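[Discussion] Sanity-checking designs against the backbone

I'm trying to build intuition for which residues belong where. Below is a C-alpha cell string of 584 positions. I'd appreciate it if someone posts a full sequence so I can compare it with mine line by line.
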C-alpha cells in the first residue's frame, strides 16, 4: 500500500455540491453530506469518471510520483512496465519515450503487453477445457464491479492474474526478485492493484502523473545522448498481440484461433453503462466469453490521461503498430517462449466478494415515507429531473434512506420551499415590497405595494402578483434612476424619502442579485409627515397672529418677546430644514 489515501479521493474544500459526480458515478458511490460530495471507498470501483467530469477538480487521483522518486533514489533497480496504450503515440515514438522514461531513472522500460500475452495463452487453454461463461478479469475496475455489485458472477471471472501482475512476475523471474516494478498507463484503477499487499507491483502511475514528472524534468520526447541505440528498445523484447489489449475487442483478437470457437460466443463490451445493462440481463448460464473494459472503447480512452485525443486516431495507430509488430516478429509471441524456457507458471487469482451493496432494499412504504419527507407527496412533484444526480425521485429517496443523500439535493423542492417562504414573508410584511428584474419589470410584489399604487380591496396579493408580474414598474411608480443605481452595481443598498401621489414614502432600494434583481421596500410615512407639517403651520400661525401685538408691546416686554419669537422661528425653521433634508 503506497499511501493512506485511496486512489481516488475528494478535496472537500473544492467541492461546490453540484452533484455532477453523483450523476456520472455508475454505482452511486458518492455520499452527499453537509453540502459536500465524498467518495465512499467501500462502494467505489475506481472508474475515474468523477475525476474526469468534476468541474471544480475536487475529485483527485492520488499522486504516487514522490514515492516512485524515493524508490529510485533508494538505489533499487526499478523497471517501468508500460501499458499497451503507449502505441497511441501519446508520448511520441518508441525511442523517444524510452529515452525520456530512462532519463527519469528507470533502469529498463518493458511492455505490460508481454504479460497480456501470457494471460491470453492461459485463457485459450482454459477456454478449451471449461465450457460455460468466462469473464475476462484484466480490468481492475470491472473486477471491483463484480466483487461489490455482481457477486453472483464472481465464479465466472477468469482466474488468470492481470496482465500487469503476469508481467511483473515475468520480469522478477528474469531480473531477480529484488527489482521493483512500477506501472505507467492510462488506468487509475491499477493503483488499486499496486495497493494490494500481495501484489508484485510496487506502484502504478497514470499517464498524467508521468507527463507531469517529465514536464518537471523537461524530458518530453527528447533523446538524451547518454543512451546507446540498443538501450532504446523495450526490455527484453517487443510485444506483439498483447498490444491489442488496450482496445475493446483486443483481448479476444489476441486469443487467435480460440477467438473463433463455434461453441462459445465471444462478446467484447466496454463502458460501464453498457456492462451493467448486460449483466442485469444475464442469467450466467450462457456459453460465452465476455471481454469487459470499464473505459468506453477500452484503455486507450482511460481516465488517467486527461489530454487524450481523437479515439479513432488512437485506435488506428495502435492497429498499425500491431500489424507492424506482427510482421517484424520472428515468433508470434517471443515472451511465451521465454516464459516456457524459464518454466514460469502463472499463479491463479481468487476474488473476495465484498458485501453486496445492491441488496440493501427498502419496503415501498418506507420509500413513500422518504418521498413525503423530501416534499414529493404528490405524483406531480416527482419530476424525475435528475438534478440531484439520481435518475428518479424514487432512486433519490432510496439514497436518502441509505443516508447517501440529503434533502437540499433536490433543487426543485428547495426552490418550492424557498418560494413558499418568500410568499409568506411578502404576504405578512405591512409595507409595500416589489422585486424587479434588470429591465425594471415586476417579478414579485405584495398587497402592501398594491395598496400604495393600485386598488387593494379588489385584489388578493397572489392574483395581484400574477397579474402584474412582468409589467414595467414604471406603469405604477417611477423609480427608474434609483433602480439603475442598484442594478448597475453603483450602490448595493440605500434609502430615499420621496413624495409620490401626495404620499410621503420612505423607500429602501437593495440589490438581490447584482445586475439581475433588485428589491424595493416602501413605507408610507405620510401620517408622521402630516403631523410635522401641522406643527410647522400652527407655529407659523402663532407667529403671524401675534407678531403685530408682539411688535406693539415689544418695547414694554423687552427681550422676553424677542426670545419667544426666536424660539418659535427656530422651531419652524428646524422642522422645515429637516423636511427639506428629507428626514421626515
Ligand atoms: S471513481 Fe467511479 S465509482 Fe468511484 S466515486 Fe468516482 S465515479 Fe464513482
Ligand atoms: S478499461 Fe483499461 S484503463 Fe479503463 S479501468 Fe479498465 S483497465 Fe483501466
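Best answer:
Here's mine. Compare freely.
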Amino acid at each position: 500500500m503506497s499511501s493512506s489515501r485511496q486512489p481516488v479521493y475528494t478535496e472537500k474544500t473544492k467541492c461546490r455540491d453540484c452533484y455532477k459526480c453523483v450523476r456520472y458515478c455508475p454505482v452511486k458511490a458518492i455520499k452527499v453530506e453537509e453540502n459536500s460530495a465524498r467518495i465512499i471507498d467501500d462502494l467505489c470501483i475506481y472508474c475515474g469518471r468523477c475525476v474526469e467530469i468534476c468541474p471544480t477538480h475536487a475529485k483527485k487521483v492520488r499522486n504516487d510520483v514522490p514515492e516512485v522518486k524515493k524508490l529510485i533514489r533508494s538505489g533499487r533497480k526499478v523497471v517501468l512496465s508500460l501499458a499497451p496504450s503507449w502505441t497511441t503515440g501519446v508520448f511520441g515514438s518508441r525511442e523517444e519515450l524510452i529515452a525520456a522514461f530512462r532519463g527519469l531513472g528507470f533502469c529498463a522500460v518493458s511492455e505490460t503487453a508481454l504479460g497480456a500475452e501470457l494471460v491470453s495463452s492461459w485463457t485459450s487453454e482454459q477456454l478449451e477445457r471449461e465450457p460455460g461463461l468466462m469473464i475476462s478479469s484484466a480490468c481492475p475496475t470491472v473486477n471491483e464491479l463484480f466483487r461489490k455489485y455482481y457477486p453472483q458472477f464472481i465464479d465466472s471471472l477468469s482466474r488468470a492474474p492481470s496482465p500487469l501482475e503476469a508481467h511483473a512476475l515475468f520480469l522478477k523471474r528474469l531480473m531477480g526478485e529484488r527489482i521493483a516494478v512500477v506501472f505507467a498507463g492510462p488506468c487509475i484503477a491499477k493503483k488499486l492493484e499496486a495497493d494490494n499487499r500481495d501484489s508484485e507491483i510496487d506502484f502504478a502511475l497514470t499517464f498524467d502523473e508521468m507527463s507531469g514528472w517529465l514536464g518537471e524534468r523537461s524530458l518530453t520526447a527528447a533523446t538524451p545522448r547518454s543512451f546507446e541505440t540498443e538501450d532504446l528498445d523495450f526490455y527484453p523484447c517487443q510485444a506483439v498481440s498483447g498490444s491489442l489489449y488496450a482496445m475493446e475487442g483486443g483481448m479476444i483478437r489476441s486469443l487467435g484461433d480460440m477467438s473463433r470457437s463455434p461453441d462459445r460466443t465471444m462478446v467484447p463490451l466496454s463502458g460501464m453503462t453498457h456492462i451493467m445493462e448486460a449483466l442485469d440481463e444475464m442469467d450466467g448460464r450462457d456459453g460465452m466469453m465476455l471481454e469487459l473494459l470499464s473505459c468506453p472503447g477500452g484503455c486507450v480512452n482511460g481516465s488517467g490521461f486527461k489530454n487524450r485525443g481523437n479515439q479513432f486516431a488512437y485506435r488506428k495507430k495502435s492497429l498499425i503498430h500491431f500489424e507492424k509488430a506482427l510482421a517484424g516478429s520472428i515468433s508470434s509471441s517471443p515472451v511465451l517462449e521465454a516464459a516456457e524456457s524459464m518454466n514460469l507458471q502463472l499463479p491463479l487469482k481468487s476474488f473476495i466478494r465484498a458485501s453486496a451493496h445492491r441488496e440493501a432494499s427498502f419496503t415501498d412504504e418506507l420509500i413513500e415515507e422518504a418521498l413525503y419527507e423530501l416534499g414529493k407527496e404528490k405524483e406531480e412533484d416527482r419530476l424525475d429531473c435528475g438534478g440531484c444526480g439520481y435518475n428518479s425521485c424514487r432512486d433519490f429517496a432510496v439514497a436518502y434512506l441509505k443516508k447517501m443523500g440529503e434533502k437540499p439535493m433536490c433543487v426543485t423542492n428547495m426552490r418550492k420551499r424557498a418560494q413558499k417562504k418568500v410568499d409568506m414573508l411578502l404576504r405578512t410584511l405591512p409595507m409595500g415590497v416589489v422585486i424587479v428584474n434588470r429591465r425594471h419589470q415586476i417579478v414579485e410584489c405584495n398587497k402592501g405595494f398594491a395598496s400604495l399604487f393600485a386598488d387593494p380591496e379588489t385584489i388578493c396579493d397572489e392574483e395581484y402578483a400574477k397579474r402584474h408580474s412582468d409589467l414595467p414598474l414604471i406603469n405604477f411608480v417611477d423609480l427608474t434612476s434609483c433602480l439603475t443605481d442598484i442594478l448597475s452595481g453603483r450602490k448595493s443598498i440605500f434609502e430615499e424619502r420621496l413624495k409620490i401621489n401626495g404620499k410621503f414614502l420612505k423607500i429602501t432600494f437593495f440589490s438581490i442579485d447584482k445586475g439581475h434583481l433588485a428589491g424595493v421596500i416602501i413605507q408610507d410615512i405620510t401620517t408622521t409627515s402630516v403631523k410635522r407639517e401641522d406643527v410647522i403651520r400652527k407655529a407659523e400661525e402663532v407667529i403671524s397672529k401675534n407678531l403685530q401685538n408682539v411688535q406693539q408691546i415689544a418695547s414694554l416686554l423687552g427681550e422676553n418677546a424677542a426670545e419667544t419669537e426666536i424660539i418659535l422661528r427656530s422651531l419652524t425653521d428646524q422642522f422645515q430644514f429637516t423636511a427639506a433634508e428629507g428626514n421626515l
